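Figure S4 source data
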Amino acid sequence: MSHRDGGLQGARTRRLIRHALIELVEEKGFGDATVGDIAKRALINRATFYHYHQDKYALVEEIFQEVISELPAELGPAGRISVQNRIAGWEQLFDHVGRHHRLYAALLGRRGDPWFAARLRERCVALARDRLRNVHGDIALDAGRDMPPGELELVLAVNLTMGAITWWLEHDRPLPARQMAEAVVRFATQGYFGALGLDVLPSTL
């Protein structure tokens, strides 16, 4: 369990611990980074680390909770909005990721923590479901179905988002946040074939 000690010294120590974690994940991967490594890199002793965090997983849990608390505001308004407003909301999201790019790149990358990526994906699905309910009302279960209507679509949408963010970070953010937002909205609106300019035969069903 994390100790939320107040004061400048406590805030500084938590920043040092977090920066140490990011550097070590970049260098050797989350799995190989130990509490001793983190403490040494942060120029603190192990006892100080344990004063703030039970272990490295509790540290990642704290980071996760902070990230999740920011996401709803970064996504912009929910509901039936114009394409430009939708793009603006996604641009805010990519701006958010860009501000914390080292953190996201470390924990979502190949050397990161699979738990963090899985939890973030699950929370994004839940957040998307809540936003959809704001538009359509409560989603009831269909008879004979294990999942509410639209659940698969929500998972696909979140996987699109996570994939776009991961690609952006792995390639050192080669496009501005605005262009990333436009690409995501275009893909979500037009689908795979439409976004790539491929002809799609009309359905015969």
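Figure S5 source data
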Amino acid sequence: MTTHPPRPMRARSLAEKQQRRADILCAAEDLWTTTPYADLSMNQVASAAQLAKGTLYLYFDTKEELFLALVDGHLAAWIARAAAILEERGPRTPSQLADVLLEAGQDSQSVRRLLVLLGTVLERRVRPELLQEFYQNLNAHLERLLALMPLEREVSVRVLRHLYALAIGWQHLSEQPQPIQPQTRSQPRPGGAQIDPVQGLNCVLNIGEHDAEEEFGLAVRAVIDRVTRVAAPA
């Protein structure tokens, strides 16, 4: 049985505090892969991070604040990746821009899940001043990205808005319940039960993870192409 050395009760240096905070965020995100957000507790996070609950509250007052920090970190990382690729490649066409945005967002399911959580839970429960600070920081990061995009600013803003909406929609789609097995006429459902309309819709919409990523890429390319065509002078 593996034993872990006891951790110091309190991180003292700035580096220790930053590492402790990163450990907490990592523990929370790992738990979230197997535990629904509503069922996830600060006690669980503290245990997973090998901390006393009181130590956890030195870093985050609530579960919502902890997950807002996760959103902030993931978005900052995505924007930094996109900005770095934009600077390196200097794309000139909408297709090249789509390549950059999709490459920066590879393996972006965590970001999409967090964006859904942001809009459905966190924005309602986080302290207003903290939420305002979050959006101020996000806007500052986005300004750098907008300055590097090969489009007029207004068009670039529209592209990012559509990208955000697509990310949310695709994540909702990927979280649909497993599809029911369709019944043939010769194999009626037990007791003559009818297929629930919502279940039927889920059956139609449900696609595999690989296919979902491919379809997401097609949607992003189509939107960028359409937005830039509309914006182009006649």
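Confidence is low (pLDDT under 50) at residues 1-6, 178-186, 195-205. Residues 63-89 form the longest helix (27 residues).
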